[in-house]
Amino acid sequence: MRSTHAKLAALGASAVVAALVAAAVAFNLFIGWKVESDAVGDIAYALGMDDEGGSTGRSPNYMLLDSAYAIDPREQRWTGEEEARLAAWFAANPEEYVIRHVTLGDWSCYAALVPESAFIDYSDEAFPDVAEAYATGHYVVYLDMASEQSLVATVNTAFVAIGVVGAVVAGAAGYFAGRRIEVAQESQKRFYENMSHDLKTPLAAIRGYAEGASSGVVDAAEATRAIVRETDRMTSTINEILGMARLEAGAVTPAKEPVEVADFVQDCLMPLEGAVRARGIEVRLELARGEVMADPGLFDHALSNVLTNAIRHADALVRIRYDGARLEVWNDGAVPDESELSLLFDRFHAGDGGSTGIGLAIAKEIATLHKWSVQASCVDDGLQIAFVF
User: Which residues, in sequence order, are CB contacts of 350 under 8 Å at separation 6+?
Assistant: First the structure.
């Protein structure tokens, strides 16, 4: 089975080629009909065969042939190879008053054969003197199609060139789009595999403690505490997934109100004091006074996720700074490389050790919902995540 990027590259290229082939066919059909219609109309108008149809303004050429359908000596001073071939063609096809498309090698024209007498004014007093000399030949009335042929050839060449370039560009776009889809699919696969592991682990622990308590191997009180802990862990994971789904589905509407940022940050830190003490981390605050319009519940969720991430990965220090326009959370932990940095807010990204925490992705969705932005950058040999209000 062909890969997604190969399929999309082939689909993009074939779609462009098909569209241009359809356009070229339509153009050639239309221009062919238009050229023929105009040429026939111009010749018919010049011969008086269609007085009502009108003319495009082009004047046909006239070439006099003698009674044997050879070019009359009086015309030979300006006729060339094409006219000679046209005279020979009419010698073989002498039907009169029929406008035809004549193709002779790489040259073509629309032409009609009419008797020379059709152009003699019989009311002219000089007619009896010239009738015998000039009334036995034929005129070929024709319009040269060289310019139209050149136009069609140029446009068709342009179609080919555009088709080649378009196919290459569309194929390349399809290829890279397919690669992005494949990367996203692989990320989703890893995410769900890791998420499955994250759910199975507490379930296995719950089952183990329950079986241990029932058989008397594990103290009932200890088993109960462990079961509650693992249940909370699994509930948190499930709530994160459901919260992300609700945000992406547009099912959450923020109820904004003025929020004092300095006080709000300290309120968000209070539930995390245990984790801070347990890891021996210093939290340094540099908070100016100022308000933002935010949904307190959603803002708490987003900021708590960012703070939790900073505390989890810090070595010794977490710095939180607010200057009235940006709220920055920095930690001195390991600095991700550029490729890792660009994926921090990807909901399907698996972090260090296969962690599937989607807290930063939720923080970004909440910021977007508030029309804020969230930025991740490497600053002072640490990772900084900033809300820009």
Answer: 187, 190, 191, 194, 356
Is the residue at 335 inside a domain? yes
**In the listed set 97, 128, 154, which residue is the last one of a domain according to the structure?**
154
Contact predicate 295/258, CB 8 Å: no
Distance CA 322, CA 232 (A): 32
| Minimum mean pLDDT range among 144-153, 185-194, 334-343 | 185-194
pLDDT at 387 over 90: yes
Provide the pLDDT for residue 353: 47
Please name the residues in contact with 375: beta carbons below 8 A apart, sequence gap of 6 or more. Answer: 385, 386, 388
Q: How far apart are CA 77 and CA 310, in angstroms?
A: 96
In a domain, 208, yes or no: no
**How many CA atoms lie less than 13 Å away from 218 in the CB half-sphere?**
18
Q: Are 11 and 2 in contact (CB under 8 A)?
A: no
Side-chain-side CA neighbours of residue 154 (13 Å)? 6
Task: State which of 131, 154, 177 marks the end of a domain.
Answer: 154
Domain residue limits at 281: 257-388
Cα 13 from Cα 99, distance rounded (Å):
43
Closest CA to 194 of 4, 314, 358: 358
Predicted local confidence at residue 375, as pLDDT: 94
Rounded CA-CA distance 235/232 in Å is 5
Domain with residue 321: its CATH number is 3.30.565.10
Q: Which residue has the tokens 């015998």?
A: 132
Tokens of 120: 């003699």
**39 and 150 share a domain?**
yes
Residue 275 lies in a domain: yes
Nearest alpha-carbon partner for 209 in 192, 183, 231, 189: 231
CA dihedral for 221, 226, 229, 234, sign (positive or negative): negative
pLDDT score at 270:
93
The CB density around residue 33, as the number of other CB atoms within 10 Å, is 10
The rounded distance, in Å, linking the Cα atoms of 307 and 330 is: 9
Domain total of the chain:
2
Residue 298 belongs to a domain:
yes
Tokens of 276: 């801070």
